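TA notes, week 10

Several of you asked for a full example with nothing omitted. So below is the full record: structure tokens for the whole chain, then the designed sequence directly under it. When grading your own attempts, check the secondary structure regions first.
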């Protein structure tokens, strides 16, 4: 029986039934759309369709990190009750929420030095972070403590891969990942990028191909590189920014290419999609290689 509670931010994009069924506590990561703030951090206040359609019309979405006070409140409750808590955040290179949690934990430990509260930087995003949450739940059910699980995750997180392709290069330009000239030129030439969440937890451009179909095939190529030929996947998850047909196409190619238990397709949440736009497709899975090994072998020096 699991002895600890898992705390996550809403950017992990995990299904509500999983969150509820596993007793996971969620702190919302607010986002804004054309100046209006949505504090729930997910689809409670606006539908995914309305959100993505607003982006297509040119409305601007921004996100906010979780402030230390929100973490202090939760950490204090667990410290005072003597309960175990494991917090897993969005990559510290994509959001300041990890630093907020770190600052909060330091403050709480000043008055509760023996508190059993642990913090893990997922070094990943959206369902990549969610997969790490699932691994934490599994280890807890196997009898690991929060401290043991946190230590185990520090290594295991590097085997969780996240691959992205986007439909509109201008979102990458706005996020500082492409120059405006490259974004405009790439759009005119029909180039589509394939990005990875790199070992340091940042989203980096790794390949650029011409056309949507080629970008989906490149994601499969990258996936093949990361595993042994005989590898069987329990689950591969594909999330999308309101482009279900393309996501299903990729899911079918995964089924054709790999031995896989199930391929789950779901809508990407607002926190990450605010920065990558409608038409984004992402794929998440556990690989045989670690991300540092993968980068060193296929993208040395990048």
């Amino acid at each position: 029986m699991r002895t600890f509670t898992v705390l996550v931010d809403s950017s992990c994009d995990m299904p509500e039934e999983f969150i509820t069924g596993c007793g996971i506590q969620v702190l919302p990561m607010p986002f804004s759309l054309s100046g209006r703030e949505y504090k729930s951090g997910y689809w409670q206040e606006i539908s995914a369709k309305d959100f993505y359609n607003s982006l297509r019309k040119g409305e601007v979405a921004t996100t906010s990190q979780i402030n230390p006070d929100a973490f202090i409140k939760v950490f204090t409750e667990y410290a005072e009750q003597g309960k175990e808590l494991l917090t897993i955040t969005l990559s510290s290179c994509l959001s300041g929420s990890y630093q907020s949690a770190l600052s909060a934990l330091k403050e709480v430990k000043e008055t509760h030095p023996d508190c059993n509260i642990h913090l893990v930087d997922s070094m990943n995003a959206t369902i990549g972070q969610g997969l790490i949450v699932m691994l934490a739940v599994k280890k807890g059910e196997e009898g690991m403590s929060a401290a043991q699980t946190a230590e185990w995750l520090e290594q295991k997180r590097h085997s969780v891969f996240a691959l992205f392709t986007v439909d509109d290069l201008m979102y990458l330009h706005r996020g500082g990942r492409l120059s405006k000239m490259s974004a405009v030129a790439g759009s005119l030439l029909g180039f589509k990028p394939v990005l990875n969440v790199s070992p340091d937890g940042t989203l980096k451009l790794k390949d650029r191909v011409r056309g949507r179909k080629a970008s989906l095939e490149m994601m499969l190529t990258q996936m093949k590189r990361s595993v042994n030929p005989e590898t069987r996947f329990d689950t591969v998850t594909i999330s999308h920014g309101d482009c279900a047909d393309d996501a299903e196409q990729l899911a079918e190619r995964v089924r054709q290419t790999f031995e896989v238990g199930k391929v789950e397709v779901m809508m990407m949440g607002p926190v990450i999609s605010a920065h990558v736009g409608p038409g984004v497709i992402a794929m998440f899975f556990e690989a045989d290689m670690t991300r540092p090994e993968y980068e060193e072998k296929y993208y040395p020096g990048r």
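Residues 139 and 148 are 9 Å apart (CA to CA). Use that as a sanity check on your answer.
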